[in-house]
Amino acid sequence: MSEGPTHVAIARARAGAVRGTAAAQGTMPTPTPGPGIVRAVRAVLATIPDPELPVVSITDLGMVGDVRLEPSGAIRVELLPTWVGCPALDLVRDAVVDRTTAATDLPIEVTWVHRPPWTTARITAAGRAALTAAGIAVADDLAAIHCPFCGSDRVVMDSAFGPTRCRSLQYCRACRQPFEAIKPV
C-alpha cells in the first residue's frame, strides 16, 4: 500500500499550520508594478515554508529562481524542484500562488524550471542553520555530513531512503543519535 497520500496529507497539514505572517493574512500593501513589486513578491516568498521541512522557507531552501514582471503585467515566479517527482511540488506552487496573490493584484505565473538545477549548495546559511537546529544535517557531499547534535563526522548512513525522497537516514557513532540528512546533490 502506498504511503504517498499520507505524506501529502501531512505536508498539507504542516503547510497550513504556519500562520501569522502579513502575507498569510493578506495585509501586505499592494505595490505598484515595477521593480518594487518584484522585491515585495520575493519578501512574500521568503515567508513560505517548505511543506516537508517547515522549519525552512522555500527561499532559504534555494527553491526560488527568477522572479520578474512580464511585459503582460503578470509576475512570473520560477521555482526549482529539490527532487524530481517530489509529492509536495503542487503544495509549494499553491502556497506561492495563494500568498503572492494576497500581496498583489497582478496575475501570478508559477513555473517549475530545471535550469539551473537545484543543489544543496543553494541552501542559504540561514536555511542550513534552521535545518541543523531541527536535527537535519546538510552537506554538499556525502563525505562531509556531520551530526547535527554533536558535530561529529563519525556518521554512517543507516538508509539511503528517508521519510522523503530528498532525505536519508544517518547514525552518529559518537553520540549514538539517529538523524536525517538532506541528500547531497
Domain count: the total is: 2
Tell how many strands the DSSP assignment holds.
Answer: 7
Mean pLDDT: 86
Task: Give the C-level CATH assignment of the largest domain.
Answer: Alpha Beta
Distance N terminus to C terminus?
29 Å
Radius of gyration over C-alpha positions, nearest whole angstrom:
18 Å
Alpha-beta classification: alpha/beta
Largest sheet: 4 strands, mixed
List the uncertain runs.
Answer: 1-11, 17-31
Strand order of the largest sheet: 4-7-6-5
CATH topology of the largest domain: GMP Synthetase, Chain A, domain 3
> What is the N-to-C order of secondary-structure elements (H for helix, E for strand)?
HHHEEHEHEEEE
Under the CATH scheme, the architecture of the largest domain is: 2-Layer Sandwich
Helix content: 25-40%
Could you say which overall geometry the principal axes of the C-alpha atoms support?
elongated
Short description:
By secondary structure, the protein is of the alpha/beta class. The chain is 29% helix and 18% strand.
Describe the protein.
This protein has 185 residues and is α/β, with parallel strands linked by helices. It folds into two domains: 4-112, GMP Synthetase, Chain A, domain 3, CATH 3.30.300; 135-182, no CATH class. It contains five helices and seven strands, in the order αααββαβαββββ. The longest helix is centred in the middle third of the chain and has 15 residues, at 89-103. The radius of gyration is 18 Å and the shape is elongated.
